[in-house]
Amino acid sequence: MAVYFDHRLNTDRSGINVDTQWYDGSPILAVNTYSDETGGSVNLFLDEGEKLMNVPLTRTCQATAIAWHPTKKILAVGWDNGELLIWNEHDHELHESLPLHKTSITVLGWSSAGTRLSSGDKSGVLMVWKADAKGRLQQNPLHQHHIQEPLRIMLYRPVPPPDPNNDIAQLARAAVSGDESALDMFNWKRGKNNARGGASFGAQESLTFFVGGATGGVYFVNDAGQCTQIFNADGPVMTLLHYDEKNLLITVTENMLLTQHFITPEGEAREVLKVKMSGRGEQPTIVWAGAGILATALGEGVVRMWDLEHEDNFILSLEGHSSYDHNETISCISYSPEKGTLAGGTNMGNVALWKYSPPLGGKVVDGEMKWKLQAPATVEGPIKQIRWGSSKHLLSVNTIANVFMLNEQVMSAGFKEQTAVVQYGPSSLSIEMFSNMDHHDLKTDVQVKGIFTTKDALAVWNGRRVMTYEYSSDKTTIKAAGTFTTETMNVCLYEQNVYCIESMKVQVRTHQGTVKQTINFSEPEGQPVSIDVCGTYLVIGTSIGLVRVYDLSRREAKPHSQPRNLGEIIPGFGSIISCKCNCNGSRVSVLIKSTQGTTDPKLYFWDTEVDQVSYFNFETGRGEQDDFPPEQIEGIEGDTNDAERGKTQAAKDIAGRSPMTHYWDAHDPKLVVCEAKIMIDAFNKKEKEEKKSVSLSKTMDDGPVEVMIVSLFSTPENGILIQDSFPLPDQFQTLLGIEVPYHYFVKKSENTSDDDGDIPRTESSSPRMVARRTMRDFVGLEDSDKNTKDAMLNFSYYLTIGNMDEAFKSIKLIKSESVWENMAKMCVKSRRLDVASVCLGNMGHARGARALREAMKEPELDAKVAVLAMQLGLKEDAERLLKNCKRYDLLNEFYQSVGEWKKALETAEMYDRIHLRTTYYNFAKHLEMKGDYSEAIPNYEKSDTHRFEVPRMLFDEPEALEHYISLHKDKALHKWWAQYMESTGDMETALQYYENAQDYLSLVRVYCYCGQMDKASEICNNTGDRAACYHLGRQYENQDQIKEAIHFFTRAQAYFNAIRLCKEHGMEDQLMNLALMGRPEDMIEAARYYEQKPGAQDKAVMLYHKAGNFSKALDLSFRARQFGALQLISGELDERADPELLKRCGDFFMENGQYDKAVDLLAIGRKYWEALKICMDQTVEINEDLAEKLTPSKDDAGIDTMERVKILEAIAEVCMHQGEYHLATKKFTQAGNKIKAMKALLKSGDTEKICFFANVSRQKEIYIMAANYLQSLDWRKDPEIMKNIIGFYTKGRALDSLAGFYDACAQVEIDEYQDYDKALRALGEAYKCLTKAKMNDEMLLEERLAQLKNKMALIKKFVTARRAFEENPEEGIKQCQILLEEPDLESGVRVGDVYGVMIEYYARRDRWKAAHAAIEEMKSRVSNVNIGYYVNMRTVEAVYRALDIPMGDMSRGKMNGVMDEEDGEIVEEEVDNIYGHDEV
């Protein structure tokens, strides 16, 4: 709890206080005051209310506008006469601007960095001034505008967020790592005109602002000083606010019309929303109260809140706190984002405070539930203005007559030896004497900032003065003992001594201030910051972490041990927050702040006797001896006993916290109690790891407890262990101390009444400000003697460390049943079920012992402990344990057992849906027992048991029951009621409800009973209800109306009955149709009838066939010679048919020449060889389906693998014989004979499949077969075939065949294209292949190699000779002539090609005679030569024409498809890549 110290400011009492403004930095408040006598003035005040003197801000007129510089102590003041003054508080200088404003200045505003000051007056003149570092304005304004309306309000646009691309720290790191773009940003070289080339760094300044006028105009002034009207509001502008996150301008007019405009970077406005706000006041106040939340005070008893982000409205009222009057109204408000507090001033002088505290765990609550109303601060007079401000977040309160400065101060409190003192006002103390239950109120002369009490004396101080008081021996009176002045912020008392922390020392004084002893601290030891007394020992902690303990039992304080510097051994040590010692001075607990400024989650313990430091980590919930990393803890937990698991669970209960306060017991040296609050970061991290399931409406789990009270045992032998932990009750503010058997708490201000009946285990006559709560282990033992208390404390300690022998030994002399009950309750916290069973036995609690024994089957330890807690009446503990172990089924049962049905239903709906209907049923039973039938009925309905339970419940109230049934459309209920009415003889009502229930059987039954057969027939015909039709059919049969009976039996699909009647009464015309519609049994029954009837065997065969009795149908077909039926039936036979039956059918088809059907049946009957023989002999075509039928299954037990292979090959041979080569290939492949499969495929001539099969088979022989086949094709025109031939020969390693193929390719190149170069390359490839080939006949191989070599040599000579013509033609002629003399030239080179080269050469050189001689020589050497094959016919014609020789039959050179170049083209395929490019 916090209290507010108020300072009344020394303002002019004869005047009124018009306005107050805070400076954003150090606390300085400017107060604008006006008096008719003295005129106007602006005074400055410090945080303690001290007035700054020599501030010459006075004029005869009123100051109408004031504005503080954003970063410096410079104040701008505008006056009613148009003057503008600038006061520099730092330099104590006053500056006056030129008197350019002729009317009252109404608005003033500084730019974000203070380089511009804008001023506007009542006549609409707006000026922008440039200011220097001292606030002095230039002589003339930078910009001046004349707006045609009085100016009401000014708002500077906020500074835009910094550009992350220009973050100088990130750019520096990027530049160091070599980022060129970052280096460019740091390019500070000056370019042309001496301009810098780099980026601009540092904070930007916002020079743009908005101005609102008295007639609704809203204007925007940009960086260049241009002023434009961006929109016009509907009424005088009262408030301008900027929504930074969404770049929205919020405008509110005097008639409470709110508009939102989106503002572009250029200053243009686009309307987003316009709304009329509710309420109306004389001087409404509208402020931001958090991100996107508008708060409005309209002089009502509430503050209206509008969440713009979530479009939610709610109100904050003064209800819920006794300090406010129901007629109180809120006139002004102000919000502090740093404190998260909204302050509202009321007409009765109260400052209402709402603290923003959303629930932990992301729990969804209404907006008003996130704000907690605090105790008010009070001033004199109605409040007209209220403002938060300054770096200390002070609050100024203006009541017009007075101005108050309020400073929030944490409430001081102290407790020692059953005496508690709590501050509840700046100078008001509440004193509680628990020894005799007396209560005192004390008013001091100072505003209290600290309290320390003992059982005999009290000390209070305010930092400058210390006052001490003494209690009388009977505690009935309090008297002042002394007062003295000293600058101290911490004081302790012991007997008649006052211990004060002063500068670098601790002074020991008397109550009157006389110094008796001084404890000095050197500079290296640090300034004392914490002091405490427990028993006869004093502990002092310094700023650097040095801790000293003194013994006070002697005349002077003597050192109890050597000092210890904790700052040297604690990692991350920042400073000491507080240090406390136990009653015998052996242990000191220290709470520290880390170097990051946060509270260390570890509470440190210094053992002064052995000089060792240990800790308890509230973040993990474990002492140093157990504080292992999480992965180690998980590994240990798997194989431990209940005691260890209990310790682990207790650690989890308090984990994720940090300590706030710590107190030692005044008499037990090992017991310390701490107050620990949740660590938000740790909780959020845990939330991410454990994703909670959330209901659509609300979360079941209320989230973590914000503050917990944790008791610890600290001993050198066993370290620090958890003794107990429980949440801080809602009605308590904070922990005050411990003294066995009580915890002492400060109560919240709204719970300070004397009636504490609602506080569990608290004194009935508890004082007003402090309450005590009995410790868990001592409930019922509050008034016991010291030995019993010591025994219980020892039992608790030994139970905590797990020493059961010592635990039971410590209480063996205690016979009280309540003691055993307390010990059993201890076992709930310690989770010691073994101890609990002993305690229950000593208590004689048979039911609890049985429940605990039955609960041992539960797998979770917490579930077992929860059962124990239930039996002991610890409902809160049971609930917490079941939630903790997520046993929501048991939690549901628990809520039901204690009558908390709302929680039970919530639990079932969200976590235990499998028992949801059961829960509704049990709740309905509970309500029924209470007699609340109206509430029980909907719960029976939700449990889906209302059809039975509601009639049972309302059976004794027929009218209510009938009313319930008539309102509901449930058919089952209507049917039940109809049956009940029928039983009472009320047939009309029964028929009505049967009809509502659509129970046609019952309707027909009742109508038949009443003799209304026509009505019954109508219902059956209209509805077709089978049960109703059957019943009516039976009725007609009983009345011998056979035709009608058969009709309704047919509609009921009771064909057996209809057939029976037809047979009995000879109605054969309907019998067949009925049989075909009926079941197989009905068909067989009718078939038997027809079988006995002459001439109706065909119908019998058909019915047997339809019923699936093929053997009977076929047998009857053979006997009756029904061949058509026989064929129809045999077509539906499958392998499940009788083999003998299949054979008979097969023989029948063979006799009738229907061989294909015979083969089909033999295949079904697995007579494969016989079927294949018929296929071969009778040329029955085998298709895909028949081939599959003839193929035995691999799972066929009667045929082994070899037999199956033989059958497959036989099928393939038949397919080959029939020309079904693809099918043959498939069967050969299934038989595993790929060679024969390939042969079959080759016969099919399917080149694509042949290539595919060769590639997937991967056998040498198949590759060679495929290549041989491809050679038979026209491979000369298809390069793809050539590639496959080469590839298959290569894969099949048939290099001799491949060489032959290359040789053939070379010959094709010569014969068809005369391309000797390609031919030579092909022969080279052939030679390579042949050299690698392995042949049985070595002589033949050598001969082939020699032939190839000779052929290649001839071709090479010819190629060389042909090339020689380009450089040395005569040499070419010579080589050709030599080549023509080769004896076996034709084996490699065509003679005509040699002559052709020579003739072409001679013709080009016009050597016509030589050319003619070559032609004649070629004709003589090559018989029947066709010259056109070797020489272009134009060349030949030119030769003969030049020599004037007739060509004769030479003109027929164009023959055999040989064309010259003009007649067409011969397309030559590019196949170079096939042969390679190596020349041999």
How would you describe the overall organization of this protein?
With 1480 residues, the protein is α+β, with helices and mostly antiparallel strands. The protein has 48 helices and 62 strands. The strands form 15 sheets. Strands 26, 27, 28, 29 and 30 form a five-stranded antiparallel sheet that branches. Strands 46, 47, 48, 49 and 50 form a five-stranded antiparallel sheet that branches. Strands 51-52-53-54-55 form a five-stranded antiparallel sheet, with no helix packed on it. The chain is extended. The C terminus is likely disordered.
List keywords for this structure.
single chain, 1480 residues, alpha+beta, five-stranded antiparallel beta sheet, 62 strands, 25% strand, extended, disordered C terminus
Global outline = extended
State the end-to-end distance: 107 Å
Number of strands: 62
% residues in beta strands:
15-25%
Poorly predicted sequence stretches spanning 5 or more consecutive residues: 188-199, 635-639, 691-700, 753-767, 1452-1474, 1476-1480
Helix content: 25-40%
Largest sheet data = 5 strands, antiparallel
Number of helices: 48
Explain the layout of strands and helices.
Elements: E1 2-8, E2 16-22, E3 29-35, E4 39-45, E5 58-59, E6 63-68, E7 74-79, E8 84-88, E9 93-96, E10 105-110, E11 116-121, E12 125-130, E13 143-146, E14 151-156, H1 168-176, H2 180-185, E15 209-213, E16 217-221, E17 227-232, E18 237-243, E19 248-253, E20 257-263, E21 269-276, E22 285-288, E23 293-297, E24 302-307, E25 312-317, E26 330-336, E27 341-346, E28 350-356, E29 371-373, E30 377-378, E31 385-389, E32 394-398, E33 403-410, E34 413-416, E35 419-425, E36 428-433, E37 438-443, E38 450-453, E39 457-461, E40 465-471, E41 478-485, E42 491-494, E43 497-502, E44 505-509, E45 515-520, E46 528-534, E47 537-542, E48 546-551, E49 558-559, E50 564-565, E51 573-581, E52 587-594, E53 599-607, E54 612-617, E55 622-623, H3 630-637, H4 642-654, E56 657-664, E57 671-678, H5 680-689, E58 707-715, E59 719-727, E60 732-739, E61 742-747, E62 770-774, H6 786-801, H7 804-810, H8 817-830, H9 833-843, H10 846-855, H11 861-871, H12 875-884, H13 888-897, H14 901-910, H15 916-930, H16 933-942, H17 946-953, H18 958-967, ...
Helix pairs in contact: 6-7, 6-8, 8-9, 8-11, 9-10, 10-11, 11-12, 12-13, 13-14, 14-15, 15-16, 16-17, 19-20, 20-21, 21-22, 21-23, 22-23, 23-24, 24-25, 25-26, 25-27, 26-27, 27-28, 28-29, 29-30, 31-32, 32-33, 33-35, 35-36, 36-37, 37-38, 37-39, 38-39, 39-40, 40-41, 41-42, 42-43, 43-44, 44-45, 45-46, ...
